Structures are given as C-alpha cells and as structure tokens.
C-alpha cells in the first residue's frame, strides 16, 4: 500500500511543477501587461498635455496675428487720414505761397468769412485741443470724410459748464469749450465764464464752418485784424477780445502764453451790475438746456463792458492802457424791464 502511494506522488510531481511554472508565467505576464498599460496611459497623458499646450500656443499665435492685423488696419486707416490731411495742408501751403508771390494776403483773395487767422503750431494745451478740433472738423465738414458730421447750434449750450457727467447730452463744440473754461479756476464768476464760453464757441464755430452766417455771429471786435491773416502767431492771441491788444501781442512775440494767462485769467472782468444768475436761462424743449440770456449776450458784445484790473495792470501797464482805450465815456444803459428770473439751476450729479 505504501509503495502504491509513493508511485502516485512520483507520477504527479512533474505536473505540479509545470502548473506552478505556468502560474508564475501568468503572473509575470499580468505584471508586464499592467506595466505596459501604465506606460501607455502615461504616454497618452503626456501626449494629451502636449496637444493642449500646442493648441494653446496656436490660439495665442492666432490672437497675436489678429491683433497685428487689426493694428495694420488701424495704421492703414490712419495713414489714409494723414494722406488726406497732407493733401489739404499742401493745398493750403500752395495757396499761401501764391499769395506771398503776388504780395497779396488771403483776405484779398477770399471772402472775409473764409479767411481764418494764420497760426503757428500749438504753444499750450488749450491751443492743442482747439486747433486739433478745428482742423479735424473743418476737414470732415469740407471733405465729408466723417460718417457723422456734428451739429453746430446757433447758440452755445452752456450745460457743459454745470454738468460734469461724461454721458451729458451737449453738442461737441459747447462741450469742449465748456471743459476748457472750467479748467481755468481763476475764471471764478458766472458772468466771466459765460462771456468767455460765448466768444470761444462762436470763434471756433466760424473757423470750422467758414460760412457767412457763422462769421457774422462772431462779435465784430473779435474778427481777425489784417495782421492776424498775414503773420503767423499763437492761436490763443485770436481769443483776446481787444483788436489792438491782439496786434500788440503779435508784434511783441516775446510775450508767452503762460506769462500772459497767469495775469489775465484772474484780472479780466465783465461789468454786469445785476444778479449774476440773470446771465443764463434754462430752456426745456426735447431736453433741458442752459443758454445765455439774450440781454446779457447783447451786453457782452459791447467791448466797453470788458476790462482788466489788478495783477494785469501792474504787470502789463502798456496793454492795460490799450484796453482802457476801448472804454466808453458814457455808461451804456441796459434794458432790464423784461428780464425774467430763470429757472433754478438744476442740481446735476457729478
């Protein structure tokens, strides 16, 4: 019986060994397959990351390409605009050259309302703003290069002097002039602010439109003198009310804007012996606008009501004497019987 069992063990031993070897082989295969799957997974993850990075890089290049293309379009448009300006400038220089050759001024070859002052490049910030505005709007008005030609109301809208909101509804010319007037804190009374705004608005409007009606809206004493049409000078001089004082400033080119404005802004005055609030009225049509009182408008168109005092007289006595020469010996009477108190000024949000 014992010998029979031994023979059985001997007979099954090779099979057991083979089975164990097979199990070990299968275990190795499973381990290898697992390792291969992990390597494949890592490779796929790495490739996915590379694809994402390349996609992002490509998108960035496309964005940069689009930005460059948009800049190219903007530069091309600006280049076209500059070519138009260059052509207009060349035409203007050609006309000036012809005028010099024939020893005749532009006022002799053009109607007065088309003869604008001959200015040099801007010498101060206000000149930079106003000269750029006039040149661009004149070009748009004459060549129709703008998609929207702004309107130029007959009377300036004074709302910009009181409303600082960026979305205010005010015509462009009134708005720009209003912002400039507000920037001079020395112009500290309502009559002075309204007076300066009125003459600046009408002067700019005429220089843009260059029509007879716009020219006639400019006070006679503010219209250019012959020397302003013949000799180059700073644009700020054209806004000085007194004609002989403008001539003096052009002939004395050593007087600079900063020196003049520092004394003038705080020293000029408009004589108005009535309630300052009466210089404006509020009108309501489609929108609420603030305009100059017609009686005050008539008042400031009389140059005798403009004067200088204080610092300006001490610093520039010769120019103060020129201003005094425009004073009337008799005081102009102002009809006030029809003056109505205007509506209270609205409390605009700032």
UniProtKB/TrEMBL annotation:
Q: Which InterPro entries match?
A: DUF3425 (IPR021833)
Q: Where in this protein does the record put region Disordered? A: 1-44
Here the segments flagged for biased composition (Basic and acidic residues) are 21-38
**Which residue windows does the record flag with biased composition (Polar residues)?**
1-20
Q: Which Pfam families match?
A: DUF3425
Q: What is this protein called?
A: BZIP domain-containing protein
């Amino acid at each position: 019986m014992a010998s029979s069992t031994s023979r059985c063990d001997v007979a099954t031993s090779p099979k057991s060994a083979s089975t164990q070897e097979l199990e070990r082989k299968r275990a190795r295969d499973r381990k290898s397959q697992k390792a291969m799957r992990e390597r494949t997974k890592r490779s796929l993850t790495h490739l996915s990351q590379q694809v994402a990075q390349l996609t992002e890089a490509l998108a960035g290049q496309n964005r940069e390409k689009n930005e460059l293309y948009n800049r190219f379009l903007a530069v091309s448009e600006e280049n076209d605009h500059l070519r138009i300006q260059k052509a207009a400038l060349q035409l203007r220089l050609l006309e000036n050259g012809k005028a010099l050759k024939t020893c005749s001024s532009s006022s002799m070859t053009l109607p007065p309302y088309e003869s604008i002052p001959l200015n040099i490049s801007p010498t101060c910030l206000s000149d930079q703003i106003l000269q750029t505005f006039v040149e661009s709007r004149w070009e748009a008005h004459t060549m129709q290069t703008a998609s929207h030609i702004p309107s130029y109301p007959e009377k300036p809208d004074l709302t910009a002097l009181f409303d600082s909101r960026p979305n205010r509804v005010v015509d462009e010319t009134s708005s720009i002039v209003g912002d400039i007037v507000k920037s001079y804190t020395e112009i500290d009374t309502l009559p002075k602010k309204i007076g300066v705004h009125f003459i600046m608005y009408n002067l700019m409007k005429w220089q843009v439109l260059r029509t007879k009606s716009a020219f006639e809206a400019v006070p006679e004493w503010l219209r250019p003198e012959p020397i302003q049409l013949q000799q180059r000078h700073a644009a700020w001089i054209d806004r000085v009310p007194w004609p002989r004082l403008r001539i003096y400033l052009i002939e004395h080119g050593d007087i600079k804007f900063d020196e003049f404005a520092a004394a003038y802004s705080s020293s000029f005055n408009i004589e108005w012996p009535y309630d300052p609030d009466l210089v404006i009225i509020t009108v309501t049509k489609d929108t609420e606008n603030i305009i100059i009182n017609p009686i005050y408008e008539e008042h400031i168109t009389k140059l005798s009501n403009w004067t200088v005092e204080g610092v300006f007289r001490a610093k520039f006595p010769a120019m103060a004497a020129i201003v005094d020469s425009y004073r009337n010996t008799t005081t102009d009477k102002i009809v006030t019987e029809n003056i109505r108190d205007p509506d209270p000024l609205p409390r605009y949000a700032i």
